[in-house]
Design a protein that fits this description.
heterodimer, A: 398 residues, alpha/beta, Rossmann fold, nine-stranded mixed β-sheet, five-stranded parallel β-sheet, B: 286 residues, mainly alpha, 11 helices
């Protein structure tokens, strides 16, 4: 079958024309003239596909934070440019370039997917564009690939799982099976748990890695049942997390304590229903946090967007806070990059999750909460680790 | 590795295989018998799942939701055949691939518009929300067992209808020579429309009744599609019996792959497919 024959020169020209029309939508209408021009903020986030809801939450909350602070950064108006990352790592560098060289943005905010983040980091390390990662937990971005212009307001995969290691031992769970998808985020998460768990005397009986994104878990659940551990620690997110928790309960394993990082229940708790009862998770946020900042944020968010805020919204909100603080320090002069970066490094963010600062590798030093599902609600049990910093292995900065 | 552990894993494999057969059965009809490469098969699966989740919320009963989503999926299938697929029977397979791939994109976008991007779950009906206790720590959900029985029964019905009834004879004849069958006075257009609708309904049914043991999420149809094609190709194009055995084989390969060679778990299914095709290039029963 000759495919080339059916793709004529005309189709290519047509496709090119369509692409050109699409791109022209982003052509700036104003040119930068000193500090009176608008500050350009580029979003590289997923607006279609599995992670579309996350991209939407981050964008919404970012804009909300800016509006609450007078709609300006360092006295300058803001122009937003959004590019759909499609959560596609293969397009990471190309989409970053669209914003960095094509649009010449002052600041870059993104992405959700760790694979996209790694592609993005490589580009902005070259261009020097000040970048705030609002979700992706890939350790490398604030590890071996760290740079003065790269910041993060979310977490590292290691960070979100490490606190549970101590909790497990404290609760008398000495023999634990760990399980995740076989990909970078899963491996980093299990490593974080294991580091803290073995440090406190626990023993990982078996580590089970399943192909990503397979969600047929029955064989592995049978294996867990035959190993009879005290507890099970997993890293799953989204649809896989929903299904795992349901299958785990249906297989009669509820007598074995199930633990995970917060993504195991966040956003999918309603779908999991009774199956999630009793599940323990650790995360840098919980919807139910009883602080004035969190209550005010959640009220404002649901009023503006008619939806409940989640952890992703918080991370987007704080990305805006970080940039607003930095820009205030240099009075809107994006040219004064060293001073701007310096101010961002020293920022103290009053986040809905609790106040946090940044490590030398530019990753949040933050509290991690222990949460448990009770009566269909995520209850905050307490703080599992106070002011936990990622070890930032391989980062030569600071 | 004791005997019981092995036996339970065997059960897991057979149960997964039966579920795979249910999803792939519609594709066996459309791809295997009609010869249409229907990439949108996964989209019908997704449609069934979303309809079941949505209707279960509206009516409060999963059984009612499944029964309601079945005719809807069939109707959508019939309309798509009548309006789009029908014009492509005489054309190249590549044109069918393009059309049905386009349908995937349209279905995915429609799902986003109508139902949003959130991940959903459906509770197991109260009557089946219990389980068989196998060992001290392991039980087997009753719903999965019922699902296996349904899949097995459906396989028997399909085999009977296609091999033993007049309707089945028409379908097989129409697939091998449309013009001759039409010349004998049989309405081939209607016949193919019905077969396509039944295929879509089977995919929809699979999506709908597996909602309690899976998650209703964007892109759920795309992952199912690949494994369906593997099953149909292993079984031999056009053979219901082959698809049934192919599904069981894949179910067992996947389960034991995960247990015995976890590092190659994502490969075992395709390894089995390669081995079968080397041995019988046209599939088990072709």
């Amino acid at each position: 079958m000759d495919i080339a024959k059916t793709v004529t020169r005309r189709t290519i020209l047509q496709a090119g024309a369509v692409a050109a029309v699409g791109v022209s939508g982003f052509v700036p209408t104003r040119f930068a003239i000193g500090n009176t021009a608008k500050v350009k903020v580029g979003f590289l986030l997923p607006y279609t596909g599995t992670y579309a809801g996350l991209g939407e939450a981050i964008t919404n909350a970012f804009k909300l934070a800016v509006e609450e602070r007078g709609g300006k950064m360092g006295g300058r108006e803001i122009q937003y440019v959004a590019v759909d990352s499609e959560a596609n790592p293969a397009k990471g560098p190309e989409n970053t370039n669209k914003l960095v060289t094509g649009e010449n943005v002052d600041f870059l905010v993104g992405p959700v997917h760790s694979g996209v983040a790694l592609g993005m980091v490589k580009v902005v390390r070259e261009s020097g564009t000040i970048t705030v990662i609002a979700n992706a937990g890939a350790g490398a971005a604030t590890g071996p690939l760290c740079a003065p212009n790269i910041f993060r307001t979310s977490f590292t995969n290691w960070q979100a799982s490490y606190p549970m290691g101590k909790v497990a031992v404290e609760r008398g769970l000495k023999n634990v099976v760990t399980m995740s998808w076989k990909y970078a985020a899963g491996e980093e998460a299990l490593a974080g748990f294991e580091a803290n768990f073995t440090k406190h005397g626990g023993k990982v009986v078996k580590q089970i890695m399943v192909p990503f994104p397979s969600d047929e878990f029955q064989a592995n659940l049978t294996e867990i049942a035959s190993l009879k551990p005290d507890g099970v620690f997993v890293f799953f997110a989204g649809a896989g997390a929903l299904k795992f928790v349901k299958d785990y309960a249906a297989a009669g394993l509820k007598s074995i304590q199930l633990m995970g990082s917060g993504f195991l229940t966040d956003g999918v708790l309603k779908g999991q229903g009774e199956a999630a009862e009793g599940v323990l998770t650790t995360l840098h946020y919980a919807d139910a946090l009883d602080t004035p900042e969190n209550k005010a944020f959640r009220a404002a968010y649901s009023k503006s967007f008619g939806k409940e805020a989640d952890v992703y919204a918080v991370q987007g909100y704080d990305a805006a806070q970080l940039l607003v603080q930095g820009m205030a320090a240099v009075k809107g002069d994006t040219g004064a990059k060293p001073a701007l970066i310096d101010a961002m490094e020293k920022a103290v963010i009053k986040s809905p999750r609790g106040t946090f600062t940044l490590s030398k590798a530019h990753n949040p030093v933050q509290d991690f909460y222990l949460r448990q599902v009770k009566g269909g609600q995520e209850i905050v049990v307490g703080v599992a680790e106070k002011a936990l910093a990622d070890p930032a292995t391989g980062c030569k900065m600071g | 590795m004791d005997f019981w552990f092995f036996l339970i894993q065997l059960l897991n494999g057979v149960q997964y295989g039966l579920l795979l057969f249910l999803v792939a059965s519609g594709l066996t009809l459309i791809f295997g018998i009609m010869g249409i490469i229907n990439l949108a098969h996964g989209a019908f699966y997704m449609l069934g799942a979303y309809l079941a989740w949505w209707l279960a919320g509206v009516t409060g009963s999963l059984v009612a939701a499944v029964l309601l989503s079945l005719p809807i999926a069939a109707l959508v299938g019939y309309v798509i055949e009548a309006v789009l697929v029908r014009t492509l029977y005489k054309r190249d397979h590549l044109d069918q691939v393009l059309l049905t791939y386009g349908l995937i994109l349209i279905f995915n976008e429609a799902q986003r518009i109508f139902w949003g991007n959130d991940v959903h779950g459906v509770a197991v009906p109260q009557a089946l929300a219990w389980s068989f206790k196998l060992t001290e720590t392991l039980s087997y959900p009753a719903y999965r067992v019922v699902l296996s029985v349904v899949c097995g029964a459906l396989a028997l019905v399909m085999y009977f209808v296609i091999a033993k009834t007049r309707f089945g004879m028409w379908v097989r004849a129409g697939a091998s020579n449309r013009e001759m069958v039409a010349a004998l006075g049989i309405n081939v257009k209607l016949l193919f429309g019905l077969v396509f609708a039944i295929g879509a309904a089977l995919a929809g049914l699979a999506g709908a009744i597996s909602t309690p043991i899976t998650s209703v999420a964007p892109g759920m149809g795309d992952t199912v599609l690949i494994i369906c094609f593997v099953v149909v190709v292993i079984g031999g194009v056009g053979s219901v019996k082959g698809a049934f055995l192919g599904a069981l084989l894949i179910g067992l390969a996947d389960t034991f792959g995960k247990v015995f060679v976890p590092d190659f778990a994502s490969f075992t299914v395709y390894g089995v497919m390669a081995a079968v095709l080397l041995w019988k290039p046209r599939g088990l029963f072709a």
